[in-house]
Amino acid sequence: MANKYAVIETGGKQYRVEAGDAIFVEKLEANEGDKITFDKVLLADGKFGDPYVYGASVVGTIAKQGKEKKVVTFKYKAKKHGHVKKGHRQPYTKVLIKSV
């Protein structure tokens, strides 16, 4: 029998998770060490949801709140003496999956 896994949806994205995994998701409003439950489960125990699996949930703990490395965008207009340089750091939440 293969390891138990599930597919969850959070932050507009889908993640395949197993117990013990560490995933980086879009920022969640919670503190480090808080327990979090994902109830939008698309696939669990080989069952597909329509759109979600009824009664299924994935439990995890928030390990870290942080920001990714800076992404720099540079726009340049040739022969017009115009340019724009911007930087962006996307916030994220690191979640340790406890149970599926």
**CA radius of gyration:** 19 Å
- Alpha-beta classification: mainly beta
Task: Give the integer mean of the pLDDT values.
Answer: 91
Cα(first) to Cα(last) distance is 15 Å
**Backbone shape:** elongated
**Strand-residue fraction?**
over 45%
**Order of strands in the sheet with most strands:** 2-1-5-6
Task: Give a short account of the largest sheet.
Answer: 4 strands, antiparallel
Total beta strand runs: 10
Measured as a percent range, the helix fraction is under 10%
SSE sequence, one letter per element: EEEEEEEEEE
Low-confidence stretches: none
Helix count, per DSSP?
Answer: 0
Question: Domains counted in the coordinates: how many?
Answer: 1
Would you kindly provide a written description of the structure presented here, covering whatever features stand out?
There is one protein chain. Helices cover about 0% and strands about 60% of the residues. The chain has strands at about 5-10, 15-20, 20-25, 35-40, 40-45, 45-50, 60-65, 70-75, 80-90, 90-100. The model has no long low-confidence stretch (mean pLDDT about 90).
Secondary structure topology:
Layout: E1 5-10, E2 13-18, E3 22-26, E4 35-38, E5 41-44, E6 47-48, E7 58-67, E8 71-77, E9 82-88, E10 91-99
Antiparallel strand pairs: 1-2, 1-5, 3-10, 4-7, 5-6, 7-10, 8-9
